[in-house]
Description:
The protein is an all-alpha fold. It has helices at 3-23, 25-28, 30-51, 59-89, 93-97, 103-132, 140-164, 173-184, 197-203, 207-220, 227-251; strands at 53-54, 57-58.
Amino acid sequence: MELRAQWNAFSTLVIKEYNRIVRIWIQTIVPPAITMTLYFIIFGSLIGKRIGQMDGFDYMQFMAPGLIMLSVITNSYGNVVSSFFGAKFGRHIEEMLVSPMPNYLILWGHVAGGVIRGLFVGGVVTVVALFFTKLEMQHPWIVLTTVVLTAIVFSLGGFINAVFAKKFDDISIVPTFILTPLTYLGGVFYSISLLPPFWQHVSQANPILYMVNAFRYGVLGSSDIPIGTAYAIIGVAIALLYGVSMYLLNRGIGIRE
């Protein structure tokens, strides 16, 4: 397949994913905005005043980067898992698989959809956050790279979930029992410096902690962990999940069965 034809195939898939996100914006954009607004009202305005400062910032400021990253993680994951499983369920994934389009472009096309939705929702939640607190971006390049790389990690995770899912109930098991607990325990609402030493070490085994803290460092200039370590963890996660995704796609596991 020629390079131009590959680009046409990839861009067509990305545009299809983009149109899907925009077409059902009431389901993809509005609910996370409402949920995060409630978080800011309840945990920021009401409870945050009693908590006071955390790491030198008022609680609303400290929490805002975590909530933005929480929305990016859940929406990039959710977009790919629902889109790819929908293609499997509707049995139109076969048309893509028998086409000359390389498998890696099929994967990256869906990942791009997850990244687009993650950035869309992250941007909306950032606007919501600015209604409640003041955020001055300290390191724009770290903010941009962290949010894009994190969206890629969870888009690949959503793809693997979709490959193994056999019914609609299966696409909610991982987000409910694994992704949500890891996210809430990943430093979104608190600094791990508040935890006893044992639980600080336990928390460091949670990869989401590194993503949230790297993003918080880019926004506020404060982090519980070294930024270089965070990038290394994210890079390893992308390489591992990409390798697994390509193996599943090339072997047709969960797709051609």
